[in-house]
TrEMBL record:
<feature type="region of interest" description="Disordered">
    <location>
        <begin position="395"/>
        <end position="417"/>
    </location>
</feature>
<dbReference type="InterPro" id="IPR027417">
    <property type="entry name" value="P-loop_NTPase"/>
</dbReference>
<keyword id="KW-0175">Coiled coil</keyword>
<dbReference type="Pfam" id="PF13514">
    <property type="entry name" value="AAA_27"/>
</dbReference>
<feature type="coiled-coil region">
    <location>
        <begin position="794"/>
        <end position="855"/>
    </location>
</feature>
<dbReference type="InterPro" id="IPR038734">
    <property type="entry name" value="YhaN_AAA"/>
</dbReference>
<feature type="coiled-coil region">
    <location>
        <begin position="157"/>
        <end position="235"/>
    </location>
</feature>
<feature type="compositionally biased region" description="Basic and acidic residues">
    <location>
        <begin position="396"/>
        <end position="415"/>
    </location>
</feature>
<protein>
    <submittedName>
        <fullName>Sugar translocase</fullName>
    </submittedName>
</protein>
<feature type="coiled-coil region">
    <location>
        <begin position="283"/>
        <end position="310"/>
    </location>
</feature>
<feature type="domain" description="YhaN AAA">
    <location>
        <begin position="1"/>
        <end position="207"/>
    </location>
</feature>
Length: 1157
C-alpha cells in the first residue's frame, strides 16, 4: 500500500493543495522528503494522512478555516489489487467516498491495513518526536520481552498473552494446587451437606404411607362437601331469581292490558307527534312572508320610476376620466417649471468656466470639444502603461548590471577550483560507495564474530552439564541417544511401577490398621456386655449338647453336674444375647468384617511382592539401555537423571548447530568484505585517489566520499557558471526589449494627441496635462448632458399645460358649462362634480333594480313553500285517517303512549327471561307460579340450611388436609430423598465436566505458552540483531550494538560502548543517543514487519522531524536506515531543516523532494 497522490482539499489552512508522490520506480527506494519552514503545514500533513486512513477525529483542530462540515481529504492509493481513489469527509457515518462521491465501507481501506488500529499505526508508522520518545520508552519498559509489542503487531498476536492469562485465572478459580478456596472445594462441601441432609430425611415408610392415605381421605371428603355446597347454592339462587322475577311478570301483564285498552291505532312512527303543530305554524309564517315580499316589490317599482338621468353628461365620463394623468402632470409642471429654468441658467455659467479652464473660448460650442470613446480609451491606455514601461526599463537596466557582476564572480570561482574527473569514474565510485554503505559489510563481519564468540561460549556452557560424559563436538554428534518418546515411556513406566509399589504398600498398611481396629471393637463389645458372637454361642451350645449326650449315656451325679454346668453356661449366653440383641448383631457384623479384611490383606501382600519384582526388572532394563548409550554412565544413574541429561544433550546440540550456522555466515561475510574493499580500491583508482593497501573499509569509504564531495562541488560550480551566463544573456535581451517598447510608446502618444483638438492646442502635452484635460472634459460632458436634459424637460412641461387646458375647455363646451374667466383647473373641478352627480343617480337606480329582482324572487319562493306545506298537511291527515290537525295530534299522542308501554314490556321481559333461563314470558309465568309464597320460603330455608352445613364440613376438611400437607412436608418422605439424590448427581456431573475442562485448558495453555515463547525467542533474537546493527550505524560506531541483561525478573536492553565493552542503559545515554536508540528499535520493528508481508501490503511510514537531536553525521546514517526501509515500503519524511534535504539527496540520489513554498 502506498500513497500515489494526497490532496488537502479543505483541511487546516490548505485549500486544494496536492502532493504528487509519483509512480514507484522499479529497483529504486520509495523515499520522499517534504521541506517547509515552521507553520508551513508539516504536522497538518501528518495528521491528514492519519485522518484519511482512519477517519477525521470528532474533536479535530483542523476545521478552523473551512468548518467541520466542509473538511475533505482526497487521495489516490495503490493497493496490491490496483489503484483506487478515495475522498474522506468529516461525518458521523459514510465519511469515506470513492472518486465519484459515492459512500464506501471503512473496510475498503482497513482491509489493507493488516489489522492495524489508529493507535497501532500512530505508534509504529506515524512518528513525531514525542511519539518516537514515548514509543521507545514503552519498548524498553516491556518487562523482559523486547519485541513483545512490535512482533505482536506484525504477527496479529497482540492480545494472546492476555487471553492466556485470563484462561489460567479461570482454571485456577476452579482448582489450584495447594489452594483451599476454589470452586472444586465448594462443590465437595455441597456434596457433604447433601449427605447429612439425606440422613436426616431417612423416615420410616409406614409412617409416611399413613400420612399420605389420611391426606387422600381428607381430600375426598373436602371435594364431596364442596359438591354439596355448590348444589345448595344453585337451588338457593334459583328461588331468589323467582322471587325477583314475579313482580316484573305482573308489571309486564299490566302493560299489555293498557296497550289493549288504547284500541286500534294506525302504524305511524311516534316521532310524528309534533309534526301537525309544526306544519300549522309553518303555513302561517309562509303566508306572512309572501304578503311582505309583494308590498316591498311594489315600493321599489315606484322609486325607480322617480329617478331621472342626463345621458349627455354621462357620455363625457370616459373622456373626463382620461384627464386624471394630464391634470397630475399640469400640477407638477406648475410647481417644477420655475426651478428647472433656474438650474439651466446655473449650468450655462458652469460650462463657460470649464471652457476657459481647458484653454478654449467661453462662447465656443461645448459639444464640439467632447472626445469620442475611442480617443479617450487610447489616451487612458497609453497614460496608464507609461509608468509600467518606465519602471520595467529601469528594472531591466539594474538586473543587467547585477547579472554581469554575478557572471564575473562565478567565472572567478570556477577558475580557482580544483579539477576533478566528473565523468563515468565518479558515477562508478558513487554507486560503489552507496552499495558498500548499504551492505554494512564490516558491521556484519563484526557482529558475526561477536555472535560466533558468544555461541562458542554458550556451547561450552551447554556441554558442561553433560558430565560424566566428555568428548569433542564430533563425539557428541556420534552418540546414539534414544529418542524422547522412548525415554518418556521409560520414565513413565518407572514412575508407574514406583507408584504401584507405593500404592500396594499403602494398601497393606491401611488393611492392617483396619483389621486391628475391628479386632479391638470385637473385644470391647464382648467385654462390655458379656455377649458372644454367633460362632462363640454355637460353640457353647455344642458343649451343652455334648454334656447332655454324656449324661444320658452315664446317668450319674458327675454327668448330671457337668450337664447342669454346661446348661447354665448356655442359658447365660442365650440370656445375654436376648437382652443385648443389638450388641449381638454388632459383634456378628464385626466378626464378618474381620474375615473380609484378613482376606483383603493377604491379597494386598501378594500384590506388593509382585510390584517389587516388576520395579526391579524395569530398573535393570533401563540401566542396560543407558550403558549401551555411553560407557561413561555409572550404574547409579537412574531414568530421571538420564532424562535431565537428555535435555542438556538437546541444548548442547542446538548450541552446536547455531555455532556452525554462524561460522558459515562469518565466512560469507568476510568474503563479501574483501570483495567490497576490492571494488572500492578499483573505483578510487579510476578517479586517481591515492589509498594504502592496509586501509580498512571505513577509511576507503571516507576517501570515496571525499572524492564524491569534491566532484559534487565542481559540478555545482560548473552549473552555477552556466546559470550565470544564461541569466546575463537573458538580462541583455530584456533590456533591449524594454528600450524598444519605450520608443514605440512615444510614437503612439504623439499620434493619439494629434488625433484631437488637444494636439493642436497643446503640441507638447505630457501625460499629466492630458490626464487633467480629460478629467475636465469628463465633468464638462456631464454638465452638457444635464443642460440638454433640462431643455427637454422644460419643453415637455409647457406642452403638458397647453394640452390639458385645451381638453378641459372642449368637454366643458359639450356639456354646456361656461369657460369664460375660469382656469383649466377650476373647470376641471366643476366638470368632475357634474359628472359624479349623474353617475351617482345611475348607481342608485341600478341598486334599486337589483333589490326589485330579489323581492320578486322571494315572492316566487314563498308561494312554492306555502303550496308544499299545504301538501304535507294533506299527506299526514290521510295517513292518520283524520280531517283536522287537532285530531291528528290526538292520534299521534296515543301512538307515542303505546310505544312507551312496548319499550317497558321489552325491558321487563329481558330481565325475567335472563334470570329464569326460559324462552318466553308464558314459560316464565308458569315457572314463577308453580309454588305459593309459603312453599317458596320453605324451600329457600332448606337450601340455606344445607348450604351452611356443607360449608362447615368443607372448612373442616380443608384445615385437616392442610395439617396433613404440613406433616408430610415436615417428614419429607421419598420425594425429599429423591430431590437430594438428584442434587447430588447434578453436582457430581458438574464436577466431572469442569474437571475435564480444567485438564483440557491446562494442557492447551501450556502448549500455547510454549509455542509463543519459542516464537518470541526467535523473533526477539532477530529483531535485537537488527536493532543492534542499526544503533551501531546511527551512532557511527560509538556503540558496538545492543545487548540484554537480566535485572531480577526483568530483561533490560543496554547499549554496548565500543572498545570498552561497558554497557549503558537508556537513562545513562545523552538525549541524542537515546533518540538514536529509539529510532533503531523502531526500524528493527518495521523490518520485522516487512518480513511477513509483500511490499504492496506494507503501509506508508511517515516521520515528522524526528532527527531534531541528531548531528549531521548521525542524520546521514539515519537517512541510510530510512532508505533501507524504503526498499520495502513507502517512507515519507517531513522537516523544516533545509540542510537535511541536501543530506538526503547525498545518501539517496533517487529521493523525491517536495517544498511547501
Amino acid at each position: 500500500m502506498r500513497l500515489r497522490r494526497l490532496n488537502l482539499t479543505r483541511y487546516g489552512k490548505f485549500a486544494a493543495f496536492p502532493f504528487d508522490f509519483g509512480e514507484l520506480k522499479p529497483g529504486a527506494p520509495d523515499f520522499h522528503v517534504i521541506f517547509g519552514p515552521n507553520e508551513a503545514g508539516k504536522s497538518t500533513t501528518l495528521c491528514a494522512i492519519l485522518d484519511l486512513l482512519f477517519g477525521i477525529e470528532h474533536n479535530t483542530r483542523y476545521g478552523y478555516l473551512h468548518g467541520f462540515d466542509n473538511m475533505e481529504i482526497g487521495a489516490e492509493v495503490e493497493f496490491s489489487s490496483g489503484m483506487r481513489e478515495f475522498r474522506r469527509r468529516k461525518k458521523r457515518s459514510n465519511s469515506l467516498l470513492d472518486g465519484h462521491g459515492d459512500p464506501l465501507p471503512e473496510t475498503a481501506i482497513l482491509d489493507e491495513m493488516a489489522g492495524l488500529s489508529r493507535e497501532d499505526y500512530r505508534f509504529m508508522f506515524s512518528l513525531d518526536e514525542a511519539m518516537l520518545k514515548k514509543g521507545g520508552e514503552a519498548i524498553l519498559a516491556s518487562k523482559g520481552d523486547l519485541g513483545q509489542l512490535l512482533f505482536s503487531a506484525s504477527a496479529g498476536l497482540a492480545d494472546l498473552s492476555q487471553n492466556l492469562s485470563s484462561i489460567r485465572e479461570e482454571n485456577e478459580a476452579f482448582f489450584k494446587e495447594g489452594g483451599r478456596k476454589h470452586d472444586l472445594a465448594k462443590l465437595k462441601e455441597d456434596l457433604k451437606d447433601l449427605a447429612e441432609k439425606r440422613n436426616e430425611f431417612d423416615t420410616q415408610a409406614s409412617a409416611y404411607a399413613k400420612l399420605v392415605a389420611d391426606r387422600k381421605n381428607a381430600e375426598e371428603s373436602y371435594n364431596k362437601a364442596l359438591d354439596d355446597r355448590t348444589r345448595a347454592q344453585r337451588e338457593k339462587e334459583t328461588i331468589e331469581a323467582i322471587e325477583i322475577a314475579l313482580p316484573r311478570i305482573v308489571k309486564f301483564e299490566d302493560l299489555a292490558q293498557k296497550i289493549s285498552d288504547l284500541g286500534e291505532l294506525p302504524d305511524a312512527a311516534p316521532e310524528l307527534k309534533d309534526t301537525p303543530s309544526k306544519l300549522r305554524d309553518e303555513a302561517i309564517r309562509l303566508e306572512t312572508e309572501l304578503k311582505g315580499a309583494v308590498a316591498r316589490a311594489a315600493d321599489l317599482e315606484r322609486e325607480i320610476d322617480q329617478i331621472v338621468v342626463n345621458e349627455s353628461i354621462l357620455k363625457e365620463g370616459e373622456a373626463f376620466a382620461e384627464l386624471d394623468i394630464p391634470r397630475s402632470k399640469s400640477l407638477a409642471a406648475l410647481e417644477d417649471l420655475p426651478k428647472r429654468k433656474i438650474d439651466k441658467d446655473g449650468l450655462n455659467a458652469k460650462i463657460k468656466v470649464a471652457l476657459r479652464d481647458i484653454g478654449r473660448d467661453e462662447n465656443e460650442t461645448a459639444h464640439a470639444l467632447l472626445l469620442d470613446a475611442r480617443t479617450k480609451a487610447r489616451l487612458k491606455e497609453l497614460g496608464d502603461s507609461w509608468g509600467t514601461l518606465n519602471t520595467a526599463l529601469k528594472s531591466a537596466k539594474r538586473e543587467q548590471e547585477q547579472a554581469a557582476e554575478k557572471e564575473r564572480k562565478a567565472r572567478e570561482k570556477r577558475s580557482s577550483a580544483k579539477v576533478v574527473d566528473t565523468g563515468d569514474g565518479l558515477r562508478l565510485l558513487s554507486g560503489v560507495v552507496y552499495h558498500v554503505r548499504a551492505g554494512s559489510f564490516d558491521t556484519k563481519v563484526s557482529d558475526a564474530r561477536k555472535k560466533a564468540h558468544r555461541l562458542k561460549a554458550e556451547f561450552d556452557r551447554a556441554t558442561a552439564p553433560l558430565s560424566p560424559w566428555s568428548g569433542s563436538a564430533e563425539d557428541l554428534r556420534s552418540l546414539r541417544v534414544p529418542d524422547k518418546a522412548l525415554i518418556a515411556q521409560w520414565s513413565s513406566d518407572v514412575t508407574a511401577a514406583g507408584r504401584a509399589l507405593k500404592d500396594a504398600e499403602t494398601a497393606v498398611q491401611a488393611l492392617s490398621a483396619d483389621l486391628g481396629r475391628l479386632l479391638a471393637e470385637r473385644a470391647s463389645a464382648s467385654a462390655g456386655f458379656g455377649v458372644m458372637s454367633d460362632s462363640e454361642a454355637a460353640s457353647r451350645r455344642g458343649d451343652r449338647e455334648k454334656a447332655w449326650a454324656e449324661h444320658r449315656r452315664r446317668l450319674d451325679s458327675n454327668s448330671a453336674d457337668a450337664f447342669e454346668e454346661a446348661l447354665r453356661a448356655d442359658d447365660l449366653v442365650m440370656s445375654a444375647r436376648i437382652n443385648h440383641a443389638s450388641e449381638v448383631a454388632k459383634v456378628n457384623a464385626v466378626a464378618a468384617a474381620i474375615i473380609v479384611k484378613e482376606a483383603e490383606r493377604k491379597t494386598a501382600i501378594e500384590a506388593c511382592e509382585k510390584a517389587k519384582d516388576e520395579e526391579a526388572a524395569l530398573l535393570k532394563k533401563v540401566a542396560d539401555a543407558l550403558n549401551f548409550v555411553s560407557g561413561h554412565f555409572s550404574e547409579k544413574m537412574d531414568i530421571l537423571a538420564f532424562k535431565d541429561w537428555i535435555e542438556g544433550y538437546g541444548a548442547a546440540i542446538r548450541a552446536l548447530d547455531d555455532l556452525s550456522e554462524v561460522e558459515d555466515e562469518l565466512s560469507g561475510f568476510e568474503t563479501d568484505l574483501c570483495e567490497a574493499k576490492s571494488r572500492l580500491r578499483e573505483a578510487l583508482a579510476r578517479v586517481d585517489v591515492a589509498f594504502a593497501e592496509s586501509d580498512d573499509l571505513r577509511t576507503l569509504l571516507q576517501l570515496g566520499q571525499n572524492a564524491l564531495d569534491a566532484g559534487t562541488t565542481l559540478k555545482g560550480l560548473d552549473e552555477a557558471l552556466t546559470t550565470a551566463q544564461e541569466e546575463l544573456k537573458q538580462r541583455d535581451k530584456d533590456f533591449s526589449e524594454a528600450q524598444k517598447a519605450a520608443n514605440q510608446w512615444c510614437a503612439d502618444w504623439k499620434t493619439a494627441c494629434e488625433s484631437s483638438w488637444i494636439g493642436q492646442t497643446h503640441p507638447d502635452a505630457t501625460t499629466v496635462l492630458v490626464s487633467a484635460i480629460v478629467e475636465k472634459l469628463k465633468i464638462l460632458e456631464g454638465d452638457v448632458l444635464k443642460h440638454d436634459d433640462l431643455d427637454y424637460r422644460i419643453q415637455a412641461m409647457d406642452d403638458d399645460l397647453e394640452n390639458f387646458e385645451k381638453d378641459v375647455r372642449e368637454i366643458a363646451e359639450r356639456i354646456g358649462v361656461g369657460v369664460d374667466g375660469r382656469s383649466s383647473l377650476a373647470l376641471f373641478d366643476i366638470l368632475k362634480a357634474r359628472i359624479e352627480a349623474e353617475e351617482s343617480r345611475v348607481r342608485e337606480r341600478e341598486r334599486k333594480l337589483h333589490g326589485l329582482a330579489q323581492e320578486r324572487e322571494k315572492v316566487a319562493k314563498s308561494r312554492d313553500a306555502h303550496d308544499q306545506s299545504m301538501k304535507s298537511q294533506g299527506e299526514i291527515l290521510s295517513l292518520l285517517g283524520v280531517e283536522t290537525l287537532d285530531a291528528a295530534l290526538d292520534v299521534l299522542a296515543k301512538i307515542a303512549t303505546r310505544a312507551g308501554y312496548q319499550e317497558n314490556m321489552a325491558s321487563e321481559a329481558k330481565e325475567v327471561l335472563g334470570r329464569l333461563k326460559v324462552a318466553s314470558m308464558e314459560e316464565a309465568s308458569v315457572k314463577a307460579r308453580e309454588n305459593d309464597s309459603a312453599q317458596m320460603a320453605s324451600l329457600k330455608a332448606d337450601a340455606q340450611s344445607r348450604f351452611d352445613e356443607a360449608d362447615g364440613r368443607m372448612n373442616t376438611f380443608f384445615a385437616q388436609r392442610a395439617q396433613l400437607d404440613s406433616a408430610i412436608e415436615a417428614v419429607g418422605g421419598d420425594d425429599a430423598v429423591a430431590r437430594i439424590e438428584e442434587q447430588r448427581r447434578t453436582i457430581c456431573l458438574e464436577i466431572e465436566d469442569k474437571s475435564l475442562r480444567w485438564f483440557r485448558l491446562r494442557a492447551g495453555v501450556a502448549a500455547a505458552e510454549r509455542g509463543l515463547r519459542i516464537y518470541r525467542e526467535q523473533h526477539r533474537s532477530s529483531m535485537l540483531s537488527s536493532a543492534s546493527a542499526s544503533f551501531s550505524t546511527i551512532s557511527r560506531g560509538a556503540y558496538e550494538g545492543l545487548s540484554t541483561i537480566v535485572d531480577g525478573a526483568r530483561e533490560q536492553i543496554v547499549g554496548v560502548v565500543a572498545g570498552t565493552k561497558a554497557t549503558r542503559n537508556s537513562e545513562e545515554m545523552s538525549t541524542g543517543t537515546r533518540f538514536q536508540l529509539f529510532l533503531a528499535l523502531r526500524v528493527a520493528g518495521y523490518l520485522e514487519f516487512a518480513k511477513t508481508r509483500p511490499s504492496r501490503a506494507l503501509v506508508p511510514f511517515v516521520a515528522d522531524d524526528i532527527l531534531e537531536t541528531f548531528d549531521d553525521v548521525r542524520s546521514e546514517e539515519a537517512f541510510r536506515l530510512l532508505v533501507r526501509m524504503a526498499q520495502f515500503g513507502q517512507v515519507i519524511y517531513l522537516t523544516h531543516h533545509e540542510h537535511l534535504c541536501a543530506i538526503a539527496q547525498t545518501v539517496c540520489p533517487d529521493v523525491r523532494l517536495y517544498r511547501f513554498d
